[in-house]
């Protein structure tokens, strides 16, 4: 991957993403509402407390909003002729997708750092290793949704693609056991949705696989979910990116 293209793309994203501020502020606000209460500080979850559990959930959600937005911006780029310009360069489709993932992770660091800072200041509690590992998983795992955003942006030649991509993340969060602890049939369904594995892995250093309904997830459950959706999004992103170039 040529760093020149990555730097150029980063400059374009910086100019286009002043609205990214809200992808950090909204999840941070949700953490303060649900994670900084006295009850959240006092209740234990695994080797941490509920405040840390909520903190990780909101950081992962904010990171996914950021990376999905970066990937979904491909729809706007195509309208502006950027895809045609890239088609004239030696940059391969896989390189373009990798570049999007790297830029998305860079932007995703903003809500993660902000929310973890708020967590540290408002009583989130857990092992040092859990703090570090969960933050790294939030950051690395968010790249999966750069591919999702790129898939959506490449598949639909419309500005609505970006809104649809980020809007669907909210639905995935409700269905994926992110916002509200699920149980029974809804929890079973959640295990097949895109956010379940990623957020479950991010929480794992704290929960150690224990779920709010008293059940237990072995590590392979969220890991398999995340890897399957990574493969699905990557394959779709490559297909639609290549197909879009052939049409231009």
UniProtKB/TrEMBL annotation:
The organism's place on the tree of life at top rank = Bacteria
Does the UniProt entry include the keyword Amino-acid biosynthesis? no
Membrane-crossing ranges are 50-76, 97-118, 130-151, 163-190, 219-240
Keyword Transferase annotated: no
Keyword field:
Membrane, Transmembrane, Transmembrane helix
Q: What is this protein called in UniProt?
A: ABC-2 type transport system permease protein
């Amino acid at each position: 991957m040529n760093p020149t293209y990555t730097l150029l793309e980063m400059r374009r994203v910086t100019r286009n993403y002043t609205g990214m501020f809200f992808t950090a502020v909204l999840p941070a606000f949700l953490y303060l509402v649900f994670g900084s209460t006295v009850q959240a500080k006092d209740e234990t979850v695994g080797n941490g407390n509920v405040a840390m559990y909520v903190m990780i959930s909101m950081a992962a959600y904010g990171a996914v909003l950021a990376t999905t937005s970066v990937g979904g911006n491909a729809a706007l780029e195509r309208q502006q002729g950027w895809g045609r310009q890239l088609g004239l360069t030696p940059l391969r489709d896989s390189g373009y997708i990798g570049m999007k993932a790297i830029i998305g992770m860079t932007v995703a660091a903003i809500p993660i750092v902000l929310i973890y800072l708020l967590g540290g200041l408002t009583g989130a509690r857990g092992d040092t290793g859990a703090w570090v590992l969960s933050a790294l998983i939030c950051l690395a795992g968010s790249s999966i949704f750069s591919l999702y955003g790129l898939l959506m942006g490449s598949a639909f030649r419309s500005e609505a693609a970006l809104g649809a991509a980020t809007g669907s993340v909210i639905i995935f969060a409700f269905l994926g056991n992110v916002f509200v602890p699920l149980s029974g049939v809804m929890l079973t369904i959640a295990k097949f949705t895109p956010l379940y594995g990623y957020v479950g892995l991010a929480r794992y250093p704290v929960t150690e696989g224990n779920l709010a309904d008293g059940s237990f997830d072995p590590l392979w459950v969220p890991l398999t979910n995340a890897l399957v959706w990574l493969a699905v999004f990557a394959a779709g992103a490559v297909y639609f990116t290549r197909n879009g170039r052939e049409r231009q």
